[in-house]
Amino acid sequence: RHPGWPVRLGPLQVRAGTVELRGPRLFDGGKWSRLRIRDRAYLEQWEPTAQEGWEERNAAMSWPAQWSSLRGMARRGTSLPFMILVDGEVAGQITVGNIVRGSLLSAWIGYWVAADRAGGGVATAAVALLTDHAFREAGLHRLEATVRPENGPSIRVLTKSGYREEGLFKRYLDVAGQWRDHLCFALTTEEIPDGLVSRLVARGEARLP
Ligand code: ACO
Hints:
Structural class: alpha+beta
Helix content: 25-40%
CATH superfamily: Gcn5-related N-acetyltransferase (GNAT)
Largest sheet: 8 strands, mixed
CATH topology: Aminopeptidase
Strand content: 25-35%
Bound molecules: acetyl coenzyme *A
Radius of gyration: 16 Å
């Protein structure tokens, strides 16, 4: 059995609204596709290159296969995939992926937030909720986030959340058609004994409703 799945995380109130995380559902396809097609210019520069074009990969018709694959990985315990809800509406995704257990107990974390909900603390709240869950219920020890050095907003989310910069991975990931350098940020459980959510609340950057 996969510890920490299925689960609903939050709510947590930030400037942009009330943030909650829940597993992906089959009926999320329409909304997911509308956001991804609308926000192509803002998302594509940071996302792994795919064989099919953006429109095809993000069409509502391609959601059932993605949903089923995410659900399969969640059930097998290799991933914790969530939809980010703001005021009850799908507004992005956050995923802990490539979970390796044994003496590593490690995984990566990645996210996107719809352009019209960005800049209001949504990603920071989602990272806090999922980091705490991954370290506590799911029993992980280390989370790693890789980000392009050009991605100012995402680097800000990670540094605000206490993720440390560990180094530069050269030609690490095929993003927007080329092998791109990525900064590696990481966090281990020892660094946040009280968790990220409680720290956000203590700093006045989020409220528990
Ligand atoms: N340079 C530096 N900081 C910036 C910039 C910039 N150009 N633009 C905005 N910021 C700051 C904001 O002011 C804010 O910081 P503040 O709260 O101190 O003012 C911070 O960046 C953003 O924090 P949030 O509001 O919590 O984040 P948001 O909900 O806007 O989501 C995200 C950020 C997810 C990066 C969003 O912009 C997005 O989806 N971008 C496209 C996809 C993407 O880049 N995903 C991340 C890939 S890397 C990874 O997954 C590890």
